[in-house]
Amino acid sequence: MDRLSATDAGFYYAESENAPLHVGSVAVFEGPAPSYGDLVRLLLSKMPQVPRYRQRVREVPLNLGRPLWVDDPHFQILYHVRHTAVPRPGGPEQLRNVAGRVLGQRLDMAKPLWEVWLVEGLEDDRWAVISKVHHCMVDGIAGTDLMQVVFDLDPNAEHTAPREWAPQRTPSGLAMVAGALTETATAPLRQLTSGPSAVTEGAKGLVGSVRAAASTLPALARQALTPVARTLTGPIGPHRRWAWADAQFDELKAARTALGGTVNDVVLTAITRGFRDLLTSRGALGADTVVRTMVPISVRKEGERGSLDNRVTAVFVDLPVGEADPVARLAAVRRQMDDYKKTLQTVDARSIIAMGDFVSPTLLALGVRASMQTGQMWCQAVTTNVPGPRVPLYLLGRRMVSAHPYVPIAGGTRISIGIFSYLNSMTFGINADFDAFPDVGVLAEGIRRGVDELVDLAGKQAATAAR
C-alpha cells in the first residue's frame, strides 16, 4: 500500500471549502493551438511516467492510518482535461480573469487530484495551459519536475501511442485498517532495527535541532514583539483574485552583483516594496511595520528529483515594509536569510519532517483541520521561489514562452506569491482572497517598481565604481 507521508497527509487534511490546497501554473505557448484531442492523447501517452495521475486518495476508516494512494477504477481523462477560450484577441487581463476562476475552484477530492485546461483565443496567435495539482501530491520542486515530464525538451519529440491500463484492485476497508494497525505497530521497530547508524544519526539530528531551536529563541522573541501588518490576515472566502508581475533574471543578477546578497534576497526585497505600496495605499503603513512571510525551503536531495511528494521545511522572514531605503530593506532581508541558512546547516530538517510519521494519524487529521479553521496571526503572506528550467520547453511542438505560478492560501493567510524562473525570466504569481484584496494590482505593480529601483541603484553604483 502506497501511503501518504505525514507532510502530504497534512496538505490533504488542510483542504476545505474555502481553502483549496492545490498548486498550479498558467503557461503560455506560441501558436497555433493544438486540438483538444491531441492534448488528451499526449497526456495519455505520458501517464505511465506519472502514475499518480490515475490514483485517488482513500482515507483509512476512523483515521487509524494515514490515507493511501489507490488506483481509480473509474478514471476518465476527459474529466481532467478541460477546454475553454477567451474572446479574441485575449490579452493578459482576460487570461488572468479566466485563470483566477479556474484556479480558485476546488478539485474533486474523490477523483485523481489534477486538472489541465486548454485555453484558446489569446492575442498574437498564442494559447495557454492552466494546470492544477493538489499540494498533497507535489511541492514546488516536484511540480517543476512534473512539468518537465509532461512537456518536451525537443520541439520534434515523438510520443508513443497511449497504452492500455488496468487499475489494481482497491483494498477493502478491513484490509486498510489491518495495514494501518500493522504499520503503526512495526514502524518504530523497523526504525530501531534498521541499524545503529540510523539511530545514531537520528539522535544527532534531534540534538542538533534542539540546539538550533534554542539559538533561534531570541529571534522568535523579537518577532513576537514586532508590529506586523495584521490587516492582511483574516477569514478567507471562496473566491480568488489572481495577478502577476514579470522581471528578467539578468536584472535581478545585476542587482545582486552590485548590492550584495543572493537573487532570492533581491526578489524578497522587491516584494517588500510591493507590500509597502499596498499598505501605503490603505493608510496602514507604520515606520516599524513588517509583513511576515513564510518562505518554504526545499530539503529535497538531487537524487530525489522526480519523486512526487512534499519535502519542504519553512522559515519566517520579516519584510521591512516600514523602511524607506531600499538598500536598508535588502540588508535587513539578507541578514535574516543568512541567519536562517546558518541555522538550517545545524538542523537535520529531513529528520524533523520524518518525525511526523510517528504522529498518530487521528491526531494529525484533527490537528491540521483545527488549525486551518482557527486561523493564525503569526504570518501575513506566503512567498515561495521555485527555480524552473533554463532551457526551452515544448508541448506538441509549440514553445512555452512564459509560466506564472499559483500558490494556495489557507489558515488566515490571505495572500501568497509564487516566484518561478524560466529561461531568462522570473515571474510572480499573486493569489489573494477576493474580498480582502480588491487592490491586488497595487501589490503587483509595486513588485515591479521594487525591481526597477534596485536595478537603478545597481546601475548608479556600477557607474560610480567605473569613474
Automatic annotation (TrEMBL):
Pfam families: WS_DGAT_C (PF06974), WS_DGAT_cat (PF03007). Residues 310-454 form the O-acyltransferase WSD1 C-terminal domain. InterPro entries: Acyl_transf_WS/DGAT (IPR014292), O-acyltransferase_WSD1-like (IPR045034), O-acyltransferase_WSD1_C (IPR009721), O-acyltransferase_WSD1_N (IPR004255). It comes from the Bacteria. Pathway: Lipid metabolism; Glycerolipid metabolism; triacylglycerol biosynthesis. Its EC number is 2.3.1.20. GO terms for molecular function: acyltransferase activity. Residues 4-267 form the O-acyltransferase WSD1-like N-terminal domain. It is an enzyme of class 2 (transferase). It catalyses: an acyl-CoA + a 1,2-diacyl-sn-glycerol = a triacyl-sn-glycerol + CoA. Keywords: Acyltransferase, Glycerol metabolism, Lipid biosynthesis, Lipid metabolism, Transferase. PANTHER family: O-ACYLTRANSFERASE (WSD1-LIKE) FAMILY PROTEIN, WAX ESTER SYNTHASE_DIACYLGLYCEROL ACYLTRANSFERASE 4-RELATED. Belongs to the long-chain O-acyltransferase family. This is Diacylglycerol O-acyltransferase. It comes from Geodermatophilus maliterrae. The lineage of its organism: Bacteria, Bacillati, Actinomycetota, Actinomycetes, Geodermatophilales.
